[in-house]
Specification:
Helices cover 72% and strands 0% of the residues of chain A. Chain A has 20 helices and no strands. Chain A has helices at residues 2-21, 24-45, 51-69, 76-88, 94-111, 118-129, 134-140, 145-161, 174-194, 204-220, 225-238, 241-244, 263-277, 284-297, 306-319, 323-336, 339-350, 359-371, 375-387, 392-407. The longest helix of chain A is centred in the N-terminal third of the chain and has 22 residues, at 24-45. Chain B is of the alpha+beta class. In chain B, 27% of the residues lie in helices and 37% in strands. Chain B has helices at residues 15-22, 25-37, 88-95, 100-103, and strands at residues 2-11, 41-46, 54-59, 62-67, 75-85, 105-110. Classes of the chains: A mainly alpha, B alpha+beta. Chains A and B meet through loops of A and helix 3 of B.
């Protein structure tokens, strides 16, 4: 119980404490101290009426203790004086209250600062905003705990030494920095959803964490259209997690048991998508969410609005061109206008030397070849795709499709 | 305020390329003047070509000198600015304005303050 209440309150308290002590590590260590003291006293004395205020005071006093002991800390006297002043203040002033509302934004923008290595941005976000332990993050990204520990420590050192200010970026920098924040959250989600290595197709805890972060972003920045788009996208994908891995093997969208979908979460995702659409500024996540929504809303796979989907992929390709989008566009056109039209689009990609090792392109090629009835070519394309697949579950599915081809 | 050394790295061009780059001198002067007026500029300088560099090492009490830069790389240090900024973001904003950012690389390094020197215990 104490652990759960603590978890709910910790981000807000930590975000403010970092501003007060001007030191990530000191703030985190002090939060850990406060957490331990909550675990010791709350079960005995009961949970305080205002847990956030309790944690705030406890963590600040531990920070004062730690600063008193650490004689080498930079600006020690000034920071101590400020903390003691705050501690003596009975009620925070109004300006302090609005500062506190912004602290979580400061924390998000600092963890996702582009001067930090992308992998460090992800790790630091999970550590400070998600409250995951270093061991949990290391496990999720399949690296050793010391490696992950060093990555996080290095990021904190860079924040301190290079003086990355604890602030929300200037107005003209917000759009670019916001894209970076959304990318970090999406990276976390994708790592959980598609598991780049190993046998498990999904790692639910990462997906759940990314969705929590997505909800926090729209709460703090309700005017960011694509933050809503990203939340919608994550909710809609995650809602189909159970159906995607139902029997241990990969289940393609068309074959999924729709009763396994989380329909409440789908409704939640569609509401977020509506919020995004209202801004009339379709961003990359909103477009992807709209595509997913069309797949979900089709009563059965044959009733899918492929022409609309193809149009959305075309828009997505103009906004952020990538091989993934091009391949999916070709596949959608293959359904909307026939496999020959899809093959026509794919031909350009197949000729690109840079894409020869791109597994989804070969898998899509195989599907289209199969549908025009060229089975030997389809088999060859499946074999190419299988050779390029690292994920055991996806490989098993491709092998199943290859085998089905031979029986026909 | 913190100090940042902004290091300008660029491939060493041939004579025509050097002339083309120096034709941007008015832009450099304008940038430098802007930084000075804003009170951010501590020092700056353009460097002669690396062929004029001498690298000094003292090993076992012997001073060794090598003709040339300490390492041969495609992009070489061509100039520097020492700036006084309110945090990394401000330093990075200025770093992106130097023409070198478009044809070379600009490295931003925080300068250590007295409080950053590690103390044992």
């Amino acid at each position: 119980m104490a652990a759960r209440v603590f978890r709910d309150e910790r981000v807000a308290v930590l975000a403010t404490l970092i501003r007060h002590v001007d030191d990530f590590q000191l703030a985190e260590d002090s939060m850990q101290d406060a957490f331990e003291s909550a675990l010791a006293t709350w079960p005995r004395d009961g949970i305080p009426r205002n847990p956030a205020a309790w944690i705030n005071v406890a963590a600040r006093r531990r920070a004062i203790d730690r600063l008193r002991r650490n004689r080498s800390a930079a600006d020690r006297a000034a920071r101590l004086a400020e903390l003691i002043r705050l501690d003596e203040q009975e009620h925070p002033t109004t300006s302090e209250a609005s500062m506190i509302a912004d602290d979580r934004l400061r924390l998000i923008f600092t963890c996702c600062h582009p001067a930090l290595d992308p992998s460090a941005q992800v790790a630091l976000t999970l550590r400070t905003l998600g409250g995951l332990t270093t061991a949990e993050i290391a496990h999720a990204f399949v690296v050793t705990e010391p490696t992950m520990g060093k990555r996080i420590a290095r990021a904190k050192r860079k924040i301190a030494n290079a003086r990355i200010r604890y602030q929300v970026p200037a107005d003209d920098e917000v759009p670019g920095r916001m894209r970076g924040v959304l990318r970090v959250v999406y990276l976390i989600f994708n790592e959980g959803y598609s598991a780049s290595a190993g046998d498990r197709l999904t790692r639910g805890e990462l997906c759940g964490e990314a969705i929590r972060l997505g909800r926090l972003l729209v709460e703090l920045m309700p005017g960011e259209a694509d933050a809503w788009g990203l939340l919608a996208l994550m909710l809609l994908h995650d809602a189909r997690r159970a159906a995607r891995t139902g029997t241990g093997g990969y289940v393609a969208l068309a074959d999924q048991d729709r009763t396994l979908w989380d329909h409440a979460q789908i409704a939640d995702g569609l509401r977020a998508l509506e919020r995004a659409v209202r801004f009339h500024r379709p961003g990359q996540y909103q477009l992807q969410a709209a595509i997913t929504a069309l797949h979900i809303q089709a009563a059965d796979p044959d009733a899918t609005e492929w022409a609309q989907i193809a149009g959305l992929y075309a828009a997505l390709g103009r906004l952020s061109p990538s091989a993934v989008v091009e391949v999916n566009h070709a596949a959608a056109v293959g359904f909307a206008e026939g496999p020959q039209a899809g093959l026509e689009l794919l031909r350009l990609l197949l000729a690109d030397p840079a894409l020869q090792h791109y597994q989804p392109m070969h898998a899509a090629h195989a599907e289209l070849l199969n549908r025009v009835g060229d089975r030997p070519a389809a088999a060859h394309a499946y074999q190419q795709a299988i050779a390029l697949t690292q994920n055991a579950v996806t490989r098993a599915e491709l092998q199943r499709r290859l085998a089905a081809l031979k029986v026909k | 305020m913190s100090q940042y050394l902004v290091l300008l790295y660029a491939p060493e061009g041939d004579e025509a390329e050097e002339l083309r780059r120096w034709s941007q001198l008015p832009l450099w002067l304008e940038l430098t003047e802007g930084l000075r007026e804003a009170g951010l500029l501590v020092a700056n300088g353009a460097l002669h070509r690396t062929e004029s560099a001498t690298t000094v090492r003292v090993r076992n009490g012997e001073t060794e000198m090598t003709d040339g830069p300490f390492a041969v790389t495609k992009e070489v240090l061509a100039g520097f600015y020492l700036l006084d900024c309110d945090g990394l973001d401000e330093a990075l904003r200025h770093a992106a304005r130097f023409p070198t950012a478009e044809f070379g690389s600009v490295e931003v390094r925080p300068i250590m303050g007295p409080g950053d020197i590690p103390v044992a215990g």
